[in-house]
Specification:
This protein is mainly α. Among the domains are: about 25-140 and about 200-410, Amino acid/polyamine transporter I, CATH 1.20.1740.10; about 150-195, no CATH class. The protein has 23 helices and two strands. The protein has a two-stranded antiparallel ribbon with strand order 1-2. Strand 1 (about 185) and strand 2 (about 190) form a beta hairpin. The longest helix is centred in the N-terminal third of the chain and has 36 residues, at about 105-140.
């Protein structure tokens, strides 16, 4: 093994050859279908669930965080769109990185995306379960509490009450969880608690995805239309219950409180890259994928900002740390009828998000398998349904079982670091290919803005403003990752002087990297552990089995 072989790259000509082969996937998706696919992924658990946790952290000012994160995603989406117009096959950031930065980076991103999609689906399944049990209670059907909550959440709530964490009133959600824990059935002295609906909905969606992309598309489009209708209803109806005093103070926990919701807010936006995983099932991927990515991101950003202002205007932000905030706020203002409609609609529409993520993950596995980095079984196509059958079933198992036992906040935090990392590498890959002059075939090209001096000037201005703060050393001590951010920015400033890089990919790198610094150390530690596991598998299996390995190329000729 030599160091250079770790960075072996797939060529665009090889991609074109692969695309000319019949991989037996149905090409049925148009620009509307792809846009709806993106909206389905973005407007899901984020808007129906994690938006409440973000508002709890940052107050009404969380709307500013949605704008900041949407801006970072716009820059990243433009890079994705350019790649998608060049590379019309499945694989998303994994394939893009393989062509630009090389195999080792591609493996890292593919491995990170497996975590992102699996964990994202767990969050969606858990949120679906919360709305499902709420919906049942609205019809007078009581779902057993011990079959609708994970063990760790129930136990934590029980311990909080026992330790006297809450001095005044105990939140209803905490009291209910603690009661559930204390009254849960036991086997051998062990409390039995798990989220059965989360597992069942994953099983159902896995079946839909398995039997075909056309069936998935039709179901997804109808669910998105319903979902958008519900959100518009919430915005219009909720606007009549806004109390401006709930927006004051606008920044109750300061800028730190707003940024504390980064994981929850960013989770809400990561779905746009799932569009690129369906490239081989798009009718005209080079034309339609870029349009769909930009359209869905703009639509969803506007919806999130407006909805966050409505929710924080209807009730005090401190009350929004619940898994079903949209239904909760209307129940709080006495509009139980609308709360019931939201719960029913959320159960149906969150299903579309689960659908999209379940479509995406098997296709990333499929792409990695085709390149030899995973076993051939992962790229096997079901002859009847024309879908990656084995990978789809395995995805259902790996999502469905953990979703019944994990806490939502844990999985929300876990998904963010890997996704930021993937976005940064896609933006970096764009810079690399542009510098090599390999983006000429792109049907969609990022507008070129010369960053030769802009990057460095902005760096100097920001550093100057930062060191003029009286407590800048304290900030560095509390957030040492800012030092890495500064070093990367400095490096990009020097590189821009020499290579005259395009500004948009640089902004994508810097925005995503800064947001990464706002994540807790636990996120980083879990991601590093996952990354090390992946590298072990790569060096044991992927490196030797890779189709770019000269030994394997000799065998195939």
């Amino acid at each position: 093994m030599n160091l250079q072989s770790l960075f072996r790259r797939k060529k665009l000509s090889d991609i074109e050859t692969e695309n000319s082969k019949n991989f037996q996937l149905h090409k049925v998706l148009g620009v509307r279908d792809l846009t709806f696919l993106g909206v389905a992924a973005i407007v899901g658990a984020g808007i129906f669930s994690t938006i409440g946790r973000a508002a709890y952290e940052g107050g009404p000012a969380v709307s500013l965080l949605f704008i900041l994160v949407a801006t970072a995603c716009i820059f990243t989406a433009l890079c994705y769109a350019q790649f998608a117009s060049m590379i019309p096959i499945s694989g998303s950031a994994y394939t893009y990185t393989y062509i630009s930065l090389g195999e080792i980076f591609a493996w890292v991103i593919g491995w990170a995306l497996l975590l992102e999609y699996a964990v994202s689906n767990m969050v969606v399944a858990i949120a679906w379960s919360e709305y499902f049990t709420t919906m049942l209670s609205g019809f007078g059907i009581h779902w057993p509490d011990w079959l609708g909550i994970d063990y760790s959440s129930a136990k934590e709530a029980y311990n909080q009450i026992q330790s006297g964490t809450f001095k005044n009133s105990i939140p209803d959600t905490v009291a209910k969880a603690a009661y559930t824990y204390s009254n849960a059935p036991q086997i051998g002295g062990i409390k039995i608690l798990f989220d059965l609906p989360a597992g069942l909905i994953t099983l159902f969606i896995t079946f839909i995805v398995y039997i075909g992309i056309k069936e998935s598309k039709n179901l997804g489009n109808w669910l998105v239309i319903l979902k958008l209708g519900v959100i518009i209803l919430v915005i219009i109806a909720g606007s009549f219950f806004i109390k401006p005093e709930n927006w004051s103070p606008f920044l109750p926990n300061g800028l730190g409180g707003v940024m504390g919701g980064v994981a929850a807010v960013f989770f809400a936006f990561i779905g746009f890259d799932s569009i690129s995983t369906t490239a081989e099932e798009a009718k005209n991927p080079q034309r339609d994928l870029p349009k769909a990515m930009i359209f869905c991101l703009i639509i969803c950003a506007l919806l999130y900002v407006i909805l966050s202002l409505v929710l924080t205007g209807m009730v005090n932000y401190k009350e929004l740390r619940v898994d079903d905030p949209l239904a909760y706020v209307f129940g709080k203002v006495g509009m139980d009828f609308i709360a019931g409609i939201i719960s029913i609609s959320a159960v149906i529409s969150i299903t579309s998000t689960l659908l999209v993520y379940q479509i995406g993950q098997p296709r990333i596995w499929m792409s990695m398998s085709r390149d030899g980095l995973l076993g051939n079984k992962f790229s096997s196509i079901n002859k009847k349904y024309k879908t990656p059958g084995f990978a789809t079933i395995l995805t259902g198992i790996l999502v469905g079982i953990p979703s019944m036992f994990l806490d939502m906040q844990f999985v929300v935090d876990l998904t963010s670091v890997g996704t930021f990392f993937a976005f940064i590498l896609v933006c970096s890959g764009t810079l690399y290919l542009e510098n090599k002059g390999e983006t000429n075939k792109a049907r969609f090209k990022i507008p070129y803005i010369n960053s030769q001096y802009i990057t460095g000037i902005c760096f100097i201005i920001c550093i100057t403003l930062f060191i003029t703060q009286t407590e800048y050393m304290k900030i560095i001590y509390e957030k040492p990752l800012l030092f890495i951010f500064a070093l990367v920015w400095f490096g990009l400033s020097i590189a821009s002087l020499k290579y005259k890089f395009s500004l948009i990919p640089i902004l994508g790198i810097l925005f995503n990297l800064y947001l990464m610094t706002e994540l807790g150390w636990s996120n980083w530690i879990m991601f590093i552990i996952w990354l090390l596991m992946g590298l072990i598998i790569y060096f044991i299996y992927g490196y030797n089995k890779s189709k770019l390995n000269p030994k394997n190329q000799i065998k195939t000729h």
